[in-house]
Amino acid sequence: MSALETVDRALLTAAVVVIVVAGAALLERIRRGPSMLDRAISLDVCAALIIAGLGAKSAFARDSFYFPIMLVLAFLGFTGSVGIARFIAVRDRPPRNGTNGNGPDTSERRKQ
C-alpha cells in the first residue's frame, strides 16, 4: 500500500467518523425539537447525511454503483423539504386584517 492510498483511507475513515457524529447529533436534534420546523430541517439533513455516507462508501469501494441512488435520494430530500416548508408556511401564516384566516371576510363584501 502506497503513501497516497494510506492517506486516502485515513481521509475516508475521518469522513465516515464525521458523518456518524453528525448523525448522532441529528438524532438528538430530532428528539428535542422544539418546533416542527426544527424536526423538518433535521430530516432534510438526515437525507444529506445518507447521501454523504453513500458517497463515502462509493469512494471507499471505488465503485460508481451508488451514484444514481444518491441522485434519487437528493431529489426526494429536496421535494420533501419543499413540501414540508409549504405546509408549515400555510399553517403558520398570520390572518389578514378583518379575516378569520380562511379567506376574505364575507361581512366586508356585504357592506359594499
Notes on the structure:
With 112 residues, this protein is mostly helical. It has helices at residues 3-32, 36-61, 67-91, 106-111. It is elongated and about 70 Å long.
Write a short abstract of this structure.
With 112 residues, the protein is mostly helical. Helix content is 78%, strand content 0%.
Residue stretches low in confidence (pLDDT < 50, at least 5 long) are: none
Structural class: mainly alpha
Radius of gyration: 23 Å
Shape: elongated
According to DSSP, the number of beta strands is: 0
Distance between the termini: 85 Å
Order of helices and strands: HHHH
Beta percentage is under 5%
**Count of helix runs:** 4
- Sheet having the most strands: none
For the residues shown, what is the average pLDDT? 83
What is the helix fraction of residues, given as a range?
Answer: over 70%
Spell out the key features of this protein.
112 residues; 4 helices; mainly alpha; elongated; single chain
Set out the fold topology.
Layout: H1 3-32, H2 36-61, H3 67-91, H4 106-111
